[in-house]
Amino acid sequence: MYTMGVDVGSASSKVLILKDGKDVVAAEVVQVGTGSTGPQKVLEMAYEVSGLSREDISYIVATGYGRFNFPGADKQISEISCHAKGVVFLVPTARTIIDIGGQDAKAIRLDDKGGIKQFFMNDKCAAGTGRFLEVMARVLETTLDEMASLDEQATDTAPISSTCTVFAESEVISQLSNGVSRNNIIKGVHLSVASRACGLAYRGGIEKDVVMTGGVAKNAGVVRAVAGVLKTEVIVAPNPQTTGALGAALFAYEAAQKK
């Protein structure tokens, strides 16, 4: 039996296909989100990679901001529930989830059975998200992929005090003009993102194991900063961008079995 999870986010669309509720046969990501051709494009990619068609899929669950705009889904489930479901499948010992996506950040507390105890979201401001990092990378004339390695070369942390993306951009430009090391600024940018995400997590209380998901979890510099702020080890979920889609596919499998 094949089931599918579709995660239509603000910055990217993800599709994951599961076989018998346990084996991943396709997990694709397109960096285009709601209101575009992203969902259809990533769907086509998943079918091509898996060699399957819509007729082969028993049940589809959509999640993410654009879940109600995705045609063909049998059910829509919130991204909070799907992220929790996906993380527990990958890391059964998870108790705290920090998810940093393209334009939002979430912190989820789980109980010992993988159920959601509390969650907190920042979806009102781009600061502390992937969009914030994109803006900073452009100002610093580097790429998102290079930022983690440049962070490792830093000799100090240049603090970023502004909590607004626009003001932080001006702050970074001012630091560059004053001769502050680009590597040190990048380390400060990563700490700024980590501090905002950890602030959400602290509201619910931190309990091990801590797992990071979302596209920003692919940035080792941010992961190190989160671990430093929390003073604990941080586990990065395998394929962190597709965790929500995985959870949706797992919910789809459960629904298909009942059906």
Plain-language structure description:
The protein has 259 residues and is of the alpha/beta class. It folds into two domains: 109 residues, ATPase, nucleotide binding domain (Nucleotidyltransferase, domain 5, 2-Layer Sandwich); 145 residues, ATPase, nucleotide binding domain (Nucleotidyltransferase, domain 5). Helices cover 41% and strands 22% of the residues. It contains eight helices and ten strands. A five-stranded mixed β-sheet has the order 3-2-1-4-5. Strands 8-7-6-9-10 form a five-stranded mixed β-sheet, sandwiched between helices. A hairpin with a 3-residue loop joins strand 2 and strand 3. The protein is globular, with a radius of gyration of 19 Å.
Structure characteristics:
alpha/beta, Nucleotidyltransferase, domain 5, 259 residues, single chain, 8 helices, 5-stranded mixed β-sheet, 10 strands
Short description:
It contains 8 helices and 10 strands. It is α/β, with parallel strands linked by helices and about 260 residues long. The strands form 2 sheets. The chain has a 5-stranded mixed β-sheet. Strands 8-7-6-9-10 form a 5-stranded mixed β-sheet, with helices on both faces.
List how many beta strands DSSP finds.
10
β-strand amount = 15-25%
Termini distance? 12 Å
Strands of the biggest beta sheet: in what spatial order? Answer: 3-2-1-4-5
SSE ordering? EEEHEEHEEEHHHHEHEH
